[in-house]
Amino acid sequence: MLVLKTQVMVNLQTTLFIWLLIKGVFCGQWAAWMPQTISALQETCVAIPCRFDYPEELRPSSVHGIWYFNSPYPKNHPPVVLKSKTSTTHETYQGRTKFLGELQQKNCSLQIERITTDIQGKYYFRADLGGYNQYTFSEHSILEIMDKPSVLSPPEILIDSEIELTCLVPDNCPNMKPSLSWLGVEGLRQHSIFGRLEEDDGTWTVLSLLRFLPSQKDNGHRVGCKVSYPDTVLEYHRFLTLDVKHAPKIVEVNSSLETTEGAHVVLICVVESNPISQVTWLKYETILKQEASGNLTLELDNVSNSHDGIYTCVAENEYGKVNKSLGLAVMYAPWKPTMNSSALVVEGDYLTIFCSTQGNPEPIMSIMKDQMVLKRVVYESEILLEIPVVNDEDDGEYWCTAENQYGYSNSSFSLTVEFAPVVLPDSKCTAGRDSVQCICIVKSNPESTIVFELPNRNLTINETDRGFVYSERNGYTISSVLSLRGEMESEILILCSATNIYGTKMKELPFHSPSSQLWAKFGPVGAVFVFVILIAVGGYMIKTRKKDTMNESSSFIQPENPPVAYRSDYTTQKNLEKSENEFHSISEKMLLNQRERLSDLDVSYANIDFSKLCMKDSYTSTEELAEYAEIRVK
Ligand SMILES: *[C@@H]1O[C@H](CO)[C@@H](O)[C@H](O)[C@H]1NC(C)=O
Ligand SMILES: *[C@@H]1O[C@H](CO)[C@@H](O)[C@H](O)[C@H]1NC(C)=O
Ligand SMILES: *[C@@H]1O[C@H](CO)[C@@H](O)[C@H](O)[C@H]1NC(C)=O
Ligand SMILES: *[C@@H]1O[C@H](CO)[C@@H](O)[C@H](O)[C@H]1NC(C)=O
Ligand SMILES: *[C@@H]1O[C@H](CO)[C@@H](O)[C@H](O)[C@H]1NC(C)=O
Ligand SMILES: *[C@@H]1O[C@H](CO)[C@@H](O)[C@H](O)[C@H]1NC(C)=O
Ligand SMILES: *[C@@H]1O[C@H](CO)[C@@H](O)[C@H](O)[C@H]1NC(C)=O
Questions:
Q1: What is the C-alpha separation between 44 and 175, in angstroms, rounded?
Q2: Per the record's keyword annotation, is Transit peptide included, yes or no (predicted)?
Q3: Does residue 325's CB lie within 6 angstroms of at least one atom of ligand 3?
């Protein structure tokens, strides 16, 4: 291997100067000068420059010389490379060697042609000045045989920083001049080639310098140096594979994307770098996957909303670090909304109903009651309904709904409003020929106690008077019916009073003529109950008569279509039927109660005759139904 000890280009004059210097130093001594090492490509030739000297006083008549191979001592019989006295050379060297200069002029330069690897080694020169004046110089040349040129490359080739490759070939044969060229340089960026000749220790080297700006695509590319000799077929090549170091580059990564719950998502990150990079998939700061690889795939199975977020692929090697991020949006139907738990408020209170959910995209949310939308927000996940002053109408079931293109969900909330009684406008009295029937319809929460008052008669009748009052409950509405029988002056004042913890409401019940076609028009609905009570003011005679076969149904007429305002408070036909059944047992109890009570009052006679209370069809008029029991007090 040829080693350049100096990069300085030395011209011929300098060489001569050194020669003269050496000559001066060794003048008049046994001494020789030749390069310590000299190289040549095989099949070419080499000329080993050589000079020697001997003591001046010898004044030889003839000067001869011998070149030995590998040993300075003739008694070892080393192969004779070249001998000036005779032509007895070793067979290996026959016809391949010659002296280049004149031995007389102390020029011992040796030329060897058609070099083969077997002649690599040490070459010694022996001067023969006749007689005993023979001397083998210890100075010798080592011949090195190369099979191809050398190419020097910097220890590291970095992308985008100019480098220089050097091709070197020994040039030590005067009649064989090497010619250097580069192969595979066409695609190299900004490449240029310079030639140079260098001398070191008397040996010559031809250099060809290739400069270029390495790019990423040059990594792994082969460039070669070719040596040829004009007028010969000799050709030598040395190739070098470029190892272009560069920071990672993310060449492929998914762009931001939308997916739906349950999907299988595969994200890829393709990295080019030299050396190989550590590639990492991160979600925010969390490492999901890491590998030293050129291609890192991240698989997300059964995607859920928790996978929603920013994913980053980071690639790093000792030359740099890069990253690329993408957003993964997981679309999903809104979750079941979270709502207030059911609440109880008092009329007049301030109330807020809050509902929240989660969905992607943000849903449209509504708060509804009775199919009516009370509030709606679009693309929000929270909704707040404010009721500054609660009233009885606000009682009920509220629904919170949330919807986006991926689905729908809802939750409900039940609000109970407590409020003072309200006597509904339908409350009234109907006077028959000799009976009066009053209905007092009260809405309240909690339930009110209803009392009928007849101030003119100094009478207060409440529900405990089972015989006179029948009440039916339906939600927050109580319909209490008072039935009176007897001769009454037309202008009897009947008040209905309703009381619960929030207050008392009293209303004079207006009289309504039964001759109006209203009843017939609307017809009775469901079970109708009648209690007929005769109240005789003054002396009382009560006569009771138990009726065993009480399987009849009584009727109470009420309009089919009550005013819309509280329509919903009326039960359906079905419920009324149920009430009817209940009534059978109730009426039996009532009879007992009535009897007990009346006996308490020291009643001497009571007669309640239900015998005529047979089943009536729904179209029977009130008057026809107005059967009665007599209560007589002596
Ligand atoms: C020896 O002689 C040759 C031929 O004349 C010449 O080219 C060469 O430079 C000489 N070498 C030295 C070392 O003087
Ligand atoms: C990510 O990109 C790769 C390659 O282009 C593709 O095969 C894959 O389906 C993409 N992933 C998603 C979730 O789109
Ligand atoms: C997907 O995830 C959901 C909830 O995270 C789970 O209920 C479901 O069973 C999963 N499906 C599969 C196929 O793993
Ligand atoms: C990605 O690169 C940017 C700058 O290029 C840097 O600010 C950021 O911190 C990097 N992110 C990660 C996760 O490395
Ligand atoms: C409903 O919840 C919200 C928030 O939690 C609260 O401010 C509000 O008072 C609650 N309303 C009721 C009626 O409980
Ligand atoms: C009602 O009772 C009061 C006293 O309790 C009495 O003064 C009044 O005369 C009575 N009225 C009738 C109509 O009986
Ligand atoms: C109902 O009337 C009875 C007797 O008439 C009475 O004892 C009771 O206190 C009254 N109840 C109400 C709530 O007024």
A1: 10
A2: no
A3: no
Amino acid at 289: K
Q: 322: how many CB neighbours lie within 10 A of its CB?
A: 16
Q: Is the CB of 304 under 6 A from ligand 3?
A: yes
Q: What DSSP assignment string belongs to 283-324?
A: ETTEEEEEEESSEEEEEE-S--GGG-EEEEEEEEETTEEEEE
Total count of domains within the chain: 4
For tokens 């979750």, what's the residue?
335
64-69 vs 121-128, strand pairing mode: antiparallel
Q: Give the residues of the chain that fall short of pLDDT 70.
A: 1-27, 487-491, 513-634
Among 90, 115, 146, the domain-final residue is: 146
pLDDT at residue 257, as a whole number? 94
Q: How far apart are CA 479 and CA 295, in angstroms?
A: 80
Return phi, psi of residue 555, to 5°.
-130, 140
Tell me the best of 261, 299, 302, 308 to mutate to test the pocket of ligand 3, counting ligand atoms within 8 Å of each CB and taking the most. 302
For position 322, what pLDDT does the model report? 96
Q: Do 185 and 212 form a contact (C-beta atoms < 8 A)?
A: yes
128 and 56 in a single domain? The answer is yes
Does one domain contain both 273 and 321?
yes
pLDDT score for 297: 96
The overall average pLDDT reported for the chain is 80
Q: Give me the domain span that covers residue 135.
A: 2-146
Buried b (16+ CB within 10 A) or exposed e, 184-204: ebeebeebeeeeeebbbebbb
Residue 5 CB coordination number (10 Å) = 8
For residue 212, the model assigns a pLDDT of 97
Measure the CA–CA gap between 108 and 98, rounded to whole angstroms: 10
Same domain assignment for residues 6 and 137: yes
Q: pLDDT for 483-521, tens place per residue?
A: 888 766 666 789 999 999 999 999 999 987 665 433 333
Among 252, 253, 254, 256, name the best residue to mutate to test ligand 2's pocket (greatest count of ligand atoms within 8 A of Cβ).
254
Question: Would the CB of 301 count as within 6 Å of ligand 3?
Answer: no
Residue 504 Cβ < 6 Å to ligand 7 = no
Do 350 and 314 lie in a common domain?
A: no
- Of 298, 325, 352, the one marking the end of a domain is 325
Point out the ligand nearest to the CA of residue 456: 6
pTM flag (> 0.70): no
Residue with CA closest to ligand 3 atom 5:
304
Contact between residue 469 and residue 415 where contact means Cβ atoms under 8 Å apart: no
Using a 6 Å cutoff on CB, does residue 267 contact ligand 2?
yes
Beta bridge partners of 249: 272
Pocket test for ligand 2, best of 256, 264, 268, 301 (most atoms within 8 A of CB): 268
- pLDDT score recorded for residue 488: 64
Give, using CA atoms, the residue closest to atom 4 of ligand 1.
Answer: 101
Residue with the nearest Cα to atom 2 of ligand 3? 302
Measured over all CA atoms, what is the biggest interatomic distance in the chain, rounded to whole angstroms?
A: 193
